[in-house]
């Protein structure tokens, strides 16, 4: 097993990316984005997950996170497992026009790995990168917040509802954000969790 993206320091701040298999644009629907948000809220309250930044895009999620319990890998694994089951159930039970196409791709993806059962929703990697410097932190923070702008979804990062850029701009945010970072030219002075 490669250690390139392995989380060694379980209580350290990491930049992670969760990607839907085959880059399927699942999160174009609000119901599926909300499942991710609700799961992250649960992990904040019950698993010691601290979220410093996030964005939910159409087929992937970027996070700056750490575990105050020293169990980041466990929190990620449980969150991905829970959201996969919940989203797959929603696809099967909600009015989803892409249902058969998506389920076929999730089933095909599951057959590519021995550790899967019927469906695979997320890729197995998390692309976890240890935040080792302030420069790297701000690079990742800006990358996360500018993702919807680069994708042409919004003109200003803080206009995207499913992003912590809103909290950084002093607007209501879907998640509680830990803001203990220093200001930059592009960002206002960040606050601590309210």
Description:
The structure is a single chain. Helix content is 37%, strand content 12%. By secondary structure, it is an alpha+beta fold. It has a single domain (14-168), classed as Alpha-Beta Plaits, CATH 3.30.70.1290. It has a four-stranded antiparallel beta sheet with strand order 2-3-1-4, with helices on both faces. Helix 1 (30-46) packs antiparallel against helix 2. The chain is globular, with a radius of gyration of 17 Å. The termini are far apart.
Which secondary structure elements does this structure contain, and how are they paired or packed?
Elements lengths: L13 E6 L10 H17 L2 E8 L3 E8 L4 H22 L5 H12 L18 E2 L3 H17 L14 H4 L26
Antiparallel strand pairs: 1-3, 1-4, 2-3
Short description:
With 194 residues, this protein is an alpha+beta fold.
* Sheet of most strands: 4 strands, antiparallel
Main β-sheet, spatial strand arrangement: 2-3-1-4
Report the C-alpha radius of gyration, rounded: 17 Å
CATH topology: Alpha-Beta Plaits
Q: Globular, elongated, flat, extended or rod-shaped: what is the shape? A: globular
CATH architecture: 2-Layer Sandwich
Question: How many domains, in number, for the residues?
Answer: 1
Average of per-residue pLDDT values: 89
Number of helices: 5
Low-confidence stretches: 182-194
Beta-strand percent range: 5-15%
Helix content: 25-40%
Q: What is the strand tally? A: 4
């Amino acid at each position: 097993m490669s250690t390139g993206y392995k989380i060694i320091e379980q209580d350290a701040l990491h930049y992670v990316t969760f990607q839907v298999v085959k880059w399927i644009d699942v999160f174009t629907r609000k119901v599926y984005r909300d499942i991710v948000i609700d799961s992250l809220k649960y992990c904040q309250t019950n698993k010691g997950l601290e979220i410093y930044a996030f964005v939910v895009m159409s087929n992937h999620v970027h996070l700056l996170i750490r575990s105050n319990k020293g169990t980041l890998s466990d929190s990620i694994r449980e969150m991905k497992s829970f959201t996969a089951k919940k989203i797959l159930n929603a696809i099967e039970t909600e009015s989803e026009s892409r249902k058969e196409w998506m389920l076929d791709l999730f089933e095909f993806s599951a057959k590519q790995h021995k550790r899967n059962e019927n469906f695979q929703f997320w890729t197995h990697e998390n692309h976890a990168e240890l935040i080792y410097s302030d420069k790297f932190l701000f690079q990742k923070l800006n990358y996360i917040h500018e993702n919807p702008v680069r994708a042409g979804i919004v003109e200003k990062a803080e206009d995207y509802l499913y992003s912590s850029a809103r909290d950084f701009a002093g607007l209501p945010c879907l998640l509680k954000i830990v803001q203990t970072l220093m200001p930059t030219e592009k960002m206002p002075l960040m606050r601590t969790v309210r």
